[in-house]
Design brief:
The chain is α+β, with helices and mostly antiparallel strands. It folds into 2 domains: about 110 residues; about 120 residues, 2-Layer Sandwich (Alpha-Beta Plaits). The strands form 2 sheets. Strands 1, 2, 3, 4 and 5 form a 5-stranded antiparallel β-sheet that branches. It has a 4-stranded antiparallel β-sheet with strand order 7-8-6-9, covered by helices on one side. A hairpin with a 2-residue loop joins strand 2 and strand 3. It is elongated. The two termini are about 20 Å apart.
């Protein structure tokens, strides 16, 4: 077994017996590395960095690794507050993980205090194209060009209105969250969703307020027929932590 370790999350020490039977990436057994009241949740990782990099560049393999990573974080998050690490964070050995816990103990304590009793809720807003289909061009083409120009004008007006609405919705949701984080909009080729993604945000919400927050997001969009909302989660608070990036890859 390689000495390298995937690190999934850091948390307040859960009962080690609760990790029994939990497996992570590539089916490796998950175990804790403890320092005082904190633990790093880890599993064995491959030592071949080039092979791992190549694997993560394939979308199908990336999905498999991501699913295993998130499953471990979610399982630990049901037991204790966690600081999730980014996908495939690897340290060369357990000594390096223990060193991380010792050196950044106070920083992780402050972050764990901040995240206690919270979850992440994702909100994506999409602008749907409601323009009518163009009629068959006339012989001269003049009517078609006029229709095309009007369509572009309507589309521009819809985008301007949608952009203003998105800002107001984001601000309203942010006022009901403890924190928020904006991510790059997802292209349709990756998400498979219809419409243009104009907001891809995460909000840090108290655990007991998730239903209320979700209902608010859906109500705010009802007044904007050109917008569609997609709410995801609750998740462990990935978007509100900046843990160490590891030794590789």
């Amino acid at each position: 077994m390689t000495a390298s370790r995937y690190v999934y999350a850091i948390g307040r020490a859960p009962d080690p017996t609760n990790l029994a039977g939990l497996v992570g990436i590539d089916g490796a057994e998950v175990h804790p590395i403890a320092h005082r009241e904190q633990v790093a949740v880890v599993s064995a990782a491959p030592s071949d960095e080039a092979a791992l990099r190549a694997r993560l560049e394939r979308l199908d393999e990336l999905a498999v690794v991501a699913e295993a990573h998130h499953a471990v974080v979610a399982a630990v998050a049901t037991q204790t507050v966690v600081v999730p690490f980014r996908l495939a964070t690897i340290y060369t050995d357990e000594h390096r993980v223990r060193e991380l816990l010792r050196q950044r103990y106070d920083e992780f304590e402050a972050l764990l205090d901040r995240l206690a009793g919270t979850v992440e809720v994702g909100v994506k807003l999409y602008v749907e194209d409601r323009s009518p289909a163009l009629a068959t061009p006339s012989t001269s083409g003049r009517a078609y060009l006029q229709q095309l120009s009007q369509r572009h004008l309507r589309r521009d007006q819809e985008w301007q209105h949608a952009a203003a609405a998105v800002e107001l919705i984001d601000a309203a949701l942010g006022a009901h969250a403890l924190d928020r984080s904006h991510h790059r909009p997802q292209p349709a080729q990756l998400s498979g969703a219809t419409g243009d993604n104009v907001l891809n945000a995460a909000y840090l919400v108290p655990t007991g307020k998730v239903t209320e927050f979700t209902d608010l997001a859906e109500r705010l969009v009802l007044a904007e027929p050109a917008l569609r909302v997609e709410v995801t989660g609750p998740w462990a608070p990935y978007s509100f932590t900046e843990p160490d990036r590891g030794d590789r890859p």
